[in-house]
Fold this sequence. Notes:
This protein is α/β, with parallel strands linked by helices.
Amino acid sequence: MIRAGIIGVSGYTGCEILSILLGHPKCEVTWLTAKKITSPTPVSDLFGQFKGLTDLVVQNEINVDKMAQACDLVFLALPHKISMSYAGQFLKKGIKVIDLSSDYRLPDLKRFQSLTGMAHLDADNLGKAVYGLAEWNADKIAKAELIANPGCYPTSILLAILPLLADGIIDLQQPILADSKSGVSGAGRNPTQALHFSEVNESIKAYKVLEHPHAPEIVHTAQAFTQASIQLKFVPHLIPIHRGLLSTIYAFTDKKTSYDALLASYRKHYREAPFVRLCARNTWPEVRHVAHTNFCDIGFTIEDNVIVIVSAIDNLVKGAAGQAVQNMNLLYNIDQKEALVP
């Protein structure tokens, strides 16, 4: 049995990881922490859905020494800029780490500092982190000590464009345009005025237009996996649903390309990818079809030289917790689908 700890279980992502792992036949959750509580508290008191399912108690401090004795692996479901204070401590004690923040996704120190306005606190491990996009990096994930779990927007966009980039179908002289819409849970559980029900209900809004911090992650990863240097224009939107993320991507080709050529590219790269589902021609992904699953649904078409790709994921599952468990399965040579497919 894999002994797993979850740091930050009081957030949406941490809660989702626990929910998945309680049904995992080869993993036992042995430690939970959350800084938001003032004293040790049963997790069922924090989330009522766990009543009768587990008697695990959430600790209110991160005790690396005690966790190292109780865990083989820790999931860091912490805010950005916090994980890098703890990952290195666990690695020194031989504990594997899956980090769900953005702290280890970009290996360039200068790039990290320019995006965050601070120096990286664990520079020695930054370049050692393996990017956890399972469909494209499975071999390295299986040998990793530290896995940087991808962001939700990058997951939806990268899975949609990487096959076409790898096969040279997309014109690199033209920008790729990505329009993404995410449910409110993608912003985390901390209460802010912008996330109140009355602020988001009956509305939709763009935010961080052309300056979202996930954009550099997408560009860097696309180049790392396909050697294609892309131009990306990314606009995210907040929509009034709890979970789910849909991306519509516009790319251009300078080649004579057909729908069948696009289909062949996707089939070639995802023939052994259990969580990528290709939609039938002239049908399109919907958020409701991927909610509460680890699937990424992809639909596409082409007219003249314009390729339109639509992808849908659950931002809390394939975009976070489910992908993290998928990476854990790869790390321990377990079927990727374990605990993620009914």
